[in-house]
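Sample 1 of the test manifest.
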Amino acid sequence: MSDRDVIFERLRAGLLRRRPGADLAPTDWSAPRSSGELTARFRQQATRLASAVVGPFAAVAAPAAIAEYLNHERLPRTAVCWPALADRDWAMAGLRVEARAATATDLVGITGAFCAIAETGTLMLLSGPETPATVSLLPETHIAVVPVAHIVATMEDGWTRLRAHSTMPRAVNFVSGPSRTADIEQTVTLGAHGPYRVLIVLTTD
Amino acid sequence: MEVTSMRFVRQAHASLTNPGLQHALGRLQAKFVSARADAIAELDDFEATRRAATAVRARVIAGLDEWLERFEAAVRANGGEVHWAVDAQAAQRELVAIARRHGVRKVAKSKSMATEECAINEALAAAGIDVIETDLGEYILQLANERPSHIVAPVVHKNKEEVADLFADRHQRARQTDIAALCREAREMLRPQFLSADMGLSGANFLVAETGSALIVTNEGNGRLVTTLPRVHVVLVGIEKVVPTLEDAALLLRLLPRSATGQSITNYVSVLTGPRRSGDPDGPEHFHVILVDNGRSRLLGDELEPMLRCIRCGACMNHCPVYQAIGGHPYGWVYPGPMGSVLTPSLVGLADTLDLPNASTLCGACSVVCPVSIPLPDLLRTLRTRQWQQRLRSRRERLALTLWAFVAHHPRLYRFATAVLARVLRVFGGRRGLIRWLPLGRGWLQGRDLPAPQSRTFLELYRKQQSP
């Protein structure tokens, strides 16, 4: 008998031993409705988890906002971005941006977001040919350009939106601020294996 | 993994007399307990959320065979493979076979208690395959050749000075004691490992049946790296981790990080569904899931079944007065604290874990904080009863309990015995009414005084009041 057969035989024998009706009845629980305005709530929660949030600006102004942030933080003006964002006018803002998956040497990664979740200040990113997962992961700085219309209340709303728009991608990554660890003496340190800083640029269109 | 639970008392004693560990445990308690309380207070209605989460987990357990079949079918539909392992050895065999098939020489691992349970690192090493832990805590333990002492904060028992010594020795670099610098050093040492690994090995916090996805929560980002960069990704996970839908996972995620570390959400939540799709520029080419039983199916239909709801947040240990005093190592296997005291006897056998069900004051703090309402004190009592029924307790203890049961079943004898005892204890109490020494009571009275009873029993006083 294969391991699979053995396990299913044990499971079914165990389930037969159960007292019928021992399950808890389904509850009338539903995901919390967001109080107040979504953009304000998102900004508040994302800031709490150490993301920097700017905007909302017109989408055409996003490259300039990014350039200003990079200058201010004394970061390089060279970046890699999602192919989905290749047509933005990066050069106009003085940025050198290549549209492709990120490699180990890229220092700044620019992405969009499938949606953003107000409840926890979280970005929801889908992997795909136009939206490679590495761009938000390998560089030390992650910048996300997010239209305010993409902000939803809860993760459940994010899943609803995904069901409506596309099939399940290989990876759905929820990102809530820069990577961190508290493994040594439970002291929170930003920048573990992922980005050290996250900038979210909100746009109106 | 070797079980040393039979040395519980000796190991606990060593913990109690280790000042460094006591300091570290104080810190854990201070941070995690208050952080959880704050994070729970943010929810509109914690109790309603917890009831719903409990119902989701209970529903899965009630139809575990069907949810697993659905999960398996969904993984296959997305181009992944599912493997089944009845026990730890089978899990090791499956994993080594997958590694051989894909010509894997190096494995980068993200934190997983299931791989710990199956002694996967040892099995890979024996097969000549390099394995590197990439969670900072687990990496420190791998360098130090130690075991985790907490399921969420594995290296809670070490301070930064010890980590500094360890890094300086193993990395052959200048010693630094700043925590941020130590984290940076680990990042620099591990980044090349992520990039050169052939296989990423992870556990899963949840498996989503409808989509065939593995969901992983991490803060460091190592979970994302090991599931994105290497060409093979293997998820090794217990069969009870399945949930029906993505929405169910979202509900449970409101409670898991809050209960664990007091975070409203972890920095990363990755939902991974199969290998790289056509046109994808990144992601693994092969996606495997190894579903491990290792004793879990025995709990179905048993009084201990609620334990299968566990989502491994660690809140029970953070709030346990016994864990807070001794840390995780004395429990002697992978899972410490109250959940470990139920799970370890269930998975490795009651005979090898005699002290664990008794390593609890039954104060109930664990069941109060459990996000899926597991009645841990009840389950510990069930295990105590079984130890008695299976005649696993010492002859002296059995004799004492038999005697007690006999007296308690005979009211007249009981009244007589307690009346005598109350008077004797009164004498032992002396003028201050505190008992500091009793025959056979040395262990109990070592750290505390017992207030002496009044010289009459309750029934004696009651009768006196009732009589005119």
